[in-house]
Amino acid sequence: METGTATQGGTASEPVWTGLPPGLLKMRRLLLVVWLGLLAVALAVPLGLFVGPGWAAFALLPLALIVWGWVVLGRNWRSWRYAERADDLLITRGVLWHHETIVPYGRMQLVEVTSGPVERHFGLASVQLHTAAAATDATIPGLVPAEAERLRDRLTELGEARSAGL
To answer: Which member of 63, 89, 90, 163 has the greatest number of CB atoms within 10 A?
Structure first.
């Protein structure tokens, strides 16, 4: 995981950003290769058999998408970061369109840890934060399950402490 300060100053008041584990990138790239590889075969075989070998070259399009998607997934994975501050949780993501979500601890109503079958196979889990306003709901994907549970417990504890003061 990547950690570091958010800006160049390096003062203690700046958030410490945590990146996503490399297992998420590995999972997403494997899914990209499997699905687009199957699409390439599904295009090449019928086109080659029924239309002609020249038309089977259209199967190269999904292979080109694999190369492009490989790069895009890497950039997207590097853009995801989160930071726990005293009063809120910051989540940033996005390469072309940068999104920064700030979720105040006192506004959190529910913190879930979810893990689908593919995520479980790769040893990953996601933390989903629910608030009263749907616009501030947030998800942190692809965390190691121990970190996801630690984050859930910490956010729940901080949420209860902050909402008690309202």
So the answer is: 89
In eight-state DSSP terms, residue 13 is T
Extract the runs of DSSP E, i.e. beta strands, from 86-144.
88-93, 99-104, 108-114, 125-131, 138-143
What value does the mean pLDDT of the chain take? 87
Residue 137 CA to residue 59 CA, distance in Å, equals 40
3 state SS of 81: strand
- Residue found by looking up tokens 């940068």 in the block: 98
Count CB-CB contacts under 10 A for residue 103.
22
Q: 90 CB contacts (<8 Å, ≥6 apart)?
A: 15, 82, 83, 100, 101, 102
- Helix segments in the chain, DSSP class H: 22-46, 60-79, 117-121, 145-164
Write down the residue that tokens 């590097």 correspond to: 78
Query: Is the Cβ–Cβ distance between 5 and 14 less than 8 Å?
Result: yes
Residues 91-122 pLDDT 10s: 999 999 999 998 888 888 899 999 999 999 99
